[in-house]
Specification:
49% of the residues lie in helices and 17% in strands. It is α+β, with helices and mostly antiparallel strands. The strands form 3 sheets. Strands 6, 7, 8, 9 and 10 form a 5-stranded antiparallel sheet that branches. Strands 1-2-4-3 form a 4-stranded antiparallel sheet, with helices on both faces. The longest helix is centred in the middle third of the chain and has 36 residues. The protein is extended and about 95 Å long.
Length: 455
Amino acid sequence: MKISFENPDKVNGLMTITVEEADYKDEVEKTLKDYRKHANVPGFRPGQVPMGLVKRQYGMQVKMDTINKILGENLQKYIADNKIQMLGQPLAPEAGEAVDLEKAAPYEFKFDIAVAPEFNIELSGKNKVDYYEIAVDDKLIDQQVEMFRSRAGHYDKAETFDPEQRDMLKGDLRELDENGNTLEGGITVEGASMMPQYIKVEDQKKLFDGAKLGDIITFNPTAAYPDNDIEVSSLLKIKKEEVAEHKGNFSYQITEISRFVKAENNAELWNGVYGEEAGIKDEAGFRKAIADGLKEQLKGDSDYKFIQDLRAYCEKKVGKLTFPDALLKRIMLANNKDKGEEFVEKNYEQSIRELTWHLIKQQLAAAHGVKVEDNDVRESARQMARAQFAQYGMTNVPDDYLNGYADDMLKKRENIDSFVEAALDRKLAAAVKEIVKLNVKSVSLEEFNKLVSEQ
């Protein structure tokens, strides 16, 4: 077998593999003998089928499979041995003719190979990159305290409706006729829940101002929630398609007013958020626990912003790279056959930007000994699980439950790539922060969020 590789412009490669009969003959013969042992052909006992019949029936397919296997193995070996940084998969040349395996060997196979552009990115203490630390101030801690109080809150009964208190109403809805009387055979909903403060139309919302327990309010649901048939259908307990048939007024007799009350800032709240094992004895301890948690949480946000700033810094340092555009578009099209050329043209530039950053990250990781292990990927899943629980105020989730949730996410193949990238970003950020000079800037959360949104 002969293999040659041409790469005149450094990014468009052409690999030629010449396969001789000796390269595949023995393997084909061995496979056909195995076929013969198990072939089930009428008129012949197992293992006694004439080899000539086996070759006629299976010979060409076995030959094709064997040659394809040899090609794949040798192509990948050549790529690895010669340290060729191949992008995507090899493709047959567009103008190439199919190899006729019916003819006698040798067979010449050609493959277009997209090669990554050569570049060099080095980082040292001479390089200065911004690093934004988010200040955990009293305002931020106050916001967290109020969030925890709201999540642990409850509803008490009230006598008068006050929209400022997030009151919830429960009452009986009855459809009215044009004279304001209960419509015979009309819609009736008992125990219908409403929060009038969310009504979109002001004159309909004002009808509930100062309402008391037992009051009867006349309003129009379709006027109160214009262009929102789903909201109306949910309130009236009808199908969305039926809303158009009920555009008149309804009476609403209030049978219950529930007022939301935030939880007290006391030991019950502190233990509910962090668990008794945290040993929080007073409000100062609660605020410290919040501050510590925020610092750890926001450190991840700072590192995320640092990676984005490092990316911009490195891309500028590397400059515009030359890629085998025509070949990469062919590869992209081959991987997205159902989406067509329009999709490729629309998304190609963005894919090149992502590819450039991927190559830069690979080089930086190799230069600074950053490797992503299985435990790193699992930690990414744990962090994702922890963040999801935190959204619902669950900050003291037991480790075994957290691990189980992370394991479930890892079972889904579509999640793995994102977890690997998150692990690489996390470890790369930690490594590079020790190498470059950090231009540390302390900012508020609002300032930080604005910086991120503008990027």
